[in-house]
């Protein structure tokens, strides 16, 4: 009777944590500013594109640096505490960010965002994985994490049009200020989670540094991994800059700001549809190599098309080709690399790919921002060179290469 009661209680805790984990990811996806990022910075903040991209590089730098020290909090005080503190810092950061239109305030706020995100990073997955492990259901982790990511994207899709409506009817800083609400709600969701006490746990604070070192070692010793990482990084960077370029483009064709969020929602929808239909594309192109070449080519074409002839139709095509395919390609490559990496090192090495991408963007962001101040057309053409380099010099050929 006692055993049944204990098992039943464990299942209740697990099911409760899963549902709360989904809600936590949905609330974190309510990034109301996403659809009006560029007008927020340029029209309300009165800063240049170069300054915008410097701010983004600044955020990525601190996001990288803070992973280890914020991991100490999860080690000493628990993952739940780390998530609560992260949500609190994010809610405060949103209020500060949206209150003072000044470059140095933006830098400080981005630092706070990096603190909040790194406090949550890893701790949220760990607390759920521990709940699954307690119930001997670790095999469900991939399914649950993938569903949580889809729910996060759903939050982004919903939030973007709401944010542009706020910007149009209230003010350009209103979406940022309102992000205080979902961040605060996520704090209460984190507070309600049940944390499993782990007797034998390794330090979370060492995780990020270990990932970086393991990935760097693997990168040095495996030619195929080098090609795959460089290919992935170059084209993902191009897809990333779609997010920063489409808003200046639709501004130039006189699209009212109230509709900006719908463009961002469309971009997110394309990511979801393409990512969830990879097997369909794989059947059409027969193998991975052909699909990766195709997705690289159309990413290039999207940039060239909108640079040569700018109108509503070409912007939509740009979002589908360069955004939808460019932003989802890295996940395809990571899934492919899983087949060649030893299972004991798989999570660590695959995670390092996103780190290399972030470090690359820290360097490239300010350069692109400088070009955007000079000419949007020049920026589009320059960025199109990134996937071209990947296609010509770092092609991924599944049949001929092995790790």
Overview of this structure, please?
- The radius of gyration is 21 Å and the shape is globular.
- The chain has helices spanning about 1-30, 35-45, 50-65, 65-75, 80-95, 105-120, 125-135, 140-170, 175-180, 180-190, 205-220, 225-250, 260-275, 280-285, 290-310, 310-335, 345-375, 375-395.
- It has two domains: about 10-200, MFS general substrate transporter like domains (Growth Hormone, Chain: A, Up-down Bundle); about 210-395, MFS general substrate transporter like domains (Growth Hormone, Chain: A, Up-down Bundle).
- Mean pLDDT is about 85; it is low at about 1-5 and about 400-403.
- It is built from 18 helices and no strands.
- About 80% of the residues lie in helices and about 0% in strands.
CATH class call of the largest domain: Mainly Alpha
Helical fraction: over 70%
Euclidean distance between termini CA atoms: 53 Å
Which spans of ≥5 residues are poorly predicted at pLDDT below 50?
Answer: 1-5, 399-403
Q: Can you name the CATH architecture of the largest domain?
A: Up-down Bundle
User: Within the CATH hierarchy, at the fold level, what is the topology of the largest domain?
Assistant: Growth Hormone, Chain: A
Radius of gyration: 21 Å
Query: How much of the residues is beta strand, in percent?
Result: under 5%
Which homologous superfamily in CATH is the superfamily of the largest domain? MFS general substrate transporter like domains
Q: Based on DSSP secondary structure assignment, what is the total number of beta strands?
A: 0
Largest sheet: none
Gross morphology: globular
Q: What string, H for helix and E for strand, traces the elements in order?
A: HHHHHHHHHHHHHHHHHH
Tally of separate domains: 2
Mean pLDDT reading: 84
Number of helices: 18
Query: Which secondary-structure class do the elements indicate?
Result: mainly alpha
């Amino acid at each position: 009777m006692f055993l049944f009661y204990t098992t039943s209680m464990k299942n209740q805790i697990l099911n409760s944590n899963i549902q709360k984990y989904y809600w936590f990811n949905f609330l974190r996806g309510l990034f109301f500013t996403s659809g009006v990022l560029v007008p927020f910075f340029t029209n309300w903040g009165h800063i240049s594109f170069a300054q915008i991209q410097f701010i983004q590089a600044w955020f990525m730098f601190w996001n990288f640096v803070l992973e280890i020290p914020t991991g100490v909090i999860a080690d000493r005080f628990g993952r739940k505490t780390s998530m609560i503190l992260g949500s609190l810092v994010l809610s405060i950061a949103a209020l500060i960010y949206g209150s003072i239109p000044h470059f140095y305030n933006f830098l400080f706020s981005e630092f706070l965002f990096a603190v909040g995100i790194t406090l949550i990073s890893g701790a949220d997955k760990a607390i759920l994985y521990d709940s699954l492990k307690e119930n001997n259901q670790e095999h469900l982790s991939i399914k649950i994490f993938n569903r949580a990511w889809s729910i996060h994207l759903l939050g982004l899709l919903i939030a973007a049009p709401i944010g542009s409506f706020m910007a149009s009817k209230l003010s350009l800083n209103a979406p940022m200020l309102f992000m205080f609400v979902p961040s605060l709600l996520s704090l209460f969701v984190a507070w309600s989670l049940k944390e499993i006490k782990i007797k034998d746990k390794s330090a979370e604070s060492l995780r990020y540094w270990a990932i970086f070192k393991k990935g760097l070692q693997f990168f040095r010793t495996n030619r195929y991994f080098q090609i795959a990482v460089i290919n992935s990084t170059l084209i993902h960077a191009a897809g990333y800059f779609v997010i920063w370029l489409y808003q200046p483009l639709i501004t130039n064709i006189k699209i009212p700001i109230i509709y900006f969020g719908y463009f961002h929602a469309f971009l997110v929808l394309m990511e979801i549809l393409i990512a969830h239909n990879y097997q369909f594309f794989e059947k059409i192109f027969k193998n991975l190599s052909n699909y990766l070449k195709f997705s690289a080519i159309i990413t290039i074409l999207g940039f060239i098309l909108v640079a040569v002839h700018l109108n509503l139709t070409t912007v939509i095509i740009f979002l589908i080709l360069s955004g939808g395919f460019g932003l989802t390609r890295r996940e395809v490559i990571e899934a492919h690399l899983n087949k060649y990496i030893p299972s004991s090192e798989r999570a660590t090495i695959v995670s390092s790919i996103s780190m290399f991408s972030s470090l690359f963007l820290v360097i490239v962001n300010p350069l692109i921002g400088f070009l955007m101040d000079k000419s949007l057309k020049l920026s589009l053409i320059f960025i199109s060179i990134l996937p071209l380099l990947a296609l010509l010099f770092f092609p991924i050929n599944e049949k001929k290469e092995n790790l």
